[in-house]
Amino acid sequence: MTQSIINSTIKPFKATAFHNGAFVDVTEQDLLGKWSVVFFYPADFTFVCPTELGDMADHYEKLQAMGVEVYSVSTDTHFTHKAWHASSDTIGKITYPMIGDPTGAITRNFGVMIEEDGLALRGTFVMNPEGEVKVAEIHDLGIGRSASELVRKIQAAQYVATHDGEVCPAKWQPGEETLAPSIDLVGKI
Is the pTM of this model over 0.90? Predict the structure, then answer.
């Protein structure tokens, strides 16, 4: 059993990303000061991965309006990301940074490296502006993720962060009632 990544602070890293037609440096400092999603996937030019990355691209504008930046990460290089972006209509619509992690350092920092394959599990991590992990979700390779469910989780995390003493129940949506845990609620839900 390992220690939970929840509430841990992002570890230092330096990498190169393909972003908006250019190669850019990205460090953990770029994730501070705003909500961030680090979205790991196994490899470029595969099968489930483009469906997930395309789904994230479809939700990217909404996430940006919520003050959230998205970073996708695989153990491919930034050069491979550029080639995939240029050759796939689905990946071509991505405007968030696509980080290359060929050494696996970032992937290992988040605990999602499949060592024998040199690939990442499907891991999604949401960090608050202080760089603390507030949501962690890890899937086996054959199970794709849903960006709309991720949006809901981020909305809940942002709500809880700004409403001291309130928590969001299952399936909570913005505008719905929250809970204020107290002894009076014990056994009443």
Answer: yes
Distances (CA, A) of 15 to 18, 25, 54, 97, 103: 10, 6, 22, 11, 10
168 flagged as catalytic = no
Surface-to-core class of residue 22, CB atoms within 10 Å of its CB (0-12 exposed, 13-18 middle, 19+ buried): exposed
Residue 81 gets the label, from left (phi > 0), alpha (psi -120 to 50) or beta, of alpha
Which neighbouring-strand residues pair with 99?
A: 17, 73
Q: Kind of pairing, strands 119-120 and 35-40?
A: unpaired
Q: Which of 38, 49, 136, 151 is catalytic?
A: 49
Tokens of 175: 């505008």
Q: Who's near 183: CB < 8 A, 6+ residues apart?
A: none
Token pair, residue 5, equals 């990544």
Residue 152, SS3 per DSSP: helix
High-pLDDT (> 70) share of the chain, %: 98
